[in-house]
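YM 10:42: Amino acid ABC transporter ATP-binding protein (PAAT family) sequence, as discussed on the call
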Amino acid sequence: MSAALEEATPNAAQVPMIEARGIHKYFSGTHVLRGIDARVAHGEVVALMGRSGSGKSTFLRCLNRIEEPSEGDVLIDGTIITDLRTDVNSVRADIGMVFQDYNLFPHMTALENVALGLIHVRKRPRSVAQDLAASALKQVGLADHLTKYPNQLSGGQQQRVAIARSLAMRPKAILFDEPTSALDPEMVHEVLDVMRTLASEGMTMVVVSHEIGFLRKVADQLIMFDDGMVIERGPTERVLDAPEHARTREFLGALK
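YM 10:58: structure's back
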């Protein structure tokens, strides 16, 4: 970690919620991320797009240290979380993560799945955790499904439980890794509607998604990845409607 990072003390109003500085990642000698920089303001929604294997999901996972960057720093609300002295569990409690495949415990009810982190990470009493979990499930439209197990829920409902699990922790931001890719088409809108509501309420979000219509309405900024690098970034409508890079034009053309 450089002395420059330690000495940097910008005004609170200018501190981004999430900042990545020079992120590199190697897997067995393969250079997967090649010096990624990004800034996400408080309340901003940033979309990550690119071909499979372009590095976008790996970068997303570096933002809450599910993947450890090989080089570079990640700052959350001005705090350098890639400092090895940082409590990883505390970082992950503050930065929610919603995966493609829900990651719910099959032997636990929706309420128990959502309350688990509150009990073991936030150290809330069980009764308090269950009240907070019930409130989060109500927020995503699942107030009538608290006692159901994952196999009793549709894919869209399971993903909404996963979102509620993040919301219950009162995170500073939520990261979404292609949250609708495993869903049947008729269930996609259930999840996207919840995400639209979160965006309208000011939740900071970084979203890996190829749902163009959704991103056009919700994302403030779009970052295009290719071969472990950022090849284009800018306001979402500008990148979607007038991409400047040939690889961006090719990728967007393939989605139509």
